[in-house]
From TrEMBL:
Key word DNA-binding present: yes
Name under which the protein is recorded: HTH-type transcriptional regulator
Species of origin: Gymnodinialimonas phycosphaerae
UniProt cross-references to PANTHER family, sorted A to Z: HTH-TYPE TRANSCRIPTIONAL REGULATOR MJ1563-RELATED
SUPFAM superfamilies: Winged helix' DNA-binding domain
Keyword Iron-sulfur part of the UniProt annotation: no
Family, per entry: Belongs to the GbsR family.
Keywords, ordered alphabetically: DNA-binding, Transcription, Transcription regulation
One Pfam family named in its UniProt record: MarR_2
Span of domain HTH marR-type: 22-80
Length: 182
């Protein structure tokens, strides 16, 4: 399998970025190759296209499947497993956010709650900072939960409003403050 220059640059960049995102370089490259492929690829095609070992390809595909970022496909008349990525970019984004939340945010929130409930006492400053951090993460995860429930079209519309929403909040906060003073 020969990659075009565009594909090769994208795949190499994704491999480099993968290590910054906490995944193996080869895993990032496998994902990038599948993302750009117009048809599902089997492990042999991936191995050949990236010039990596078959075992690296297998391990990378397993990791991507664990993240729900690749889909197993069967090609009629072929017994090999083929892989592809979701077509919808918003679905991919939602998967990534959900998986990062599950793997990084949720355990941290659990630990913060545990420290507040059963941790050593006597360090008022540390206790206050832990409580403050837990409250902020709970606020953010609550917002995430609300956004996760929105249909993609409504979420995109909300995101495109961006600073207009902030302006509206500023205006309503000012109106609230004025009515409170009276």
């Amino acid at each position: 399998m020969n990659l075009t220059n565009l594909q090769q640059e994208f795949v190499l960049h994704f491999g480099e970025m993968g290590s910054r995102w906490g995944i193996n370089r080869t895993v990032g490259q496998i994902y990038a190759l599948l993302f750009l492929s117009s048809k599902p690829l089997n492990a042999e095609q991936i191995t050949d296209g990236l010039g990596v070992s078959r075992s690296n390809t297998s391990m990378g595909l397993k990791e991507l499947q664990a993240w729900n970022l690749v889909r197993l496909r069967h090609v009629p008349g072929d017994r090999r497993d083929y892989f592809t990525t979701p077509e919808d970019l918003w679905e991919i984004t939602r998967i990534l956010i959900a998986e990062r939340k599950k793997r990084e945010i949720d355990p941290t929130l659990t630990k913060l709650r545990e420290l507040e409930m059963t941790g050593p006492k006597g360090d008022d400053y540390a206790e206050a900072r832990i409580a403050e951090l837990r409250e902020m993460i709970e606020l953010m995860t609550g917002f995430y939960d609300d956004m996760e429930k929105l249909e993609t079209e409504r979420l995109v519309k909300m995101m495109t409003l961006g600073s207009k929403i902030a302006g509206l909040i500023d205006k309503t906060s000012g109106a609230f403050a004025l009515t409170k003073r009276k």
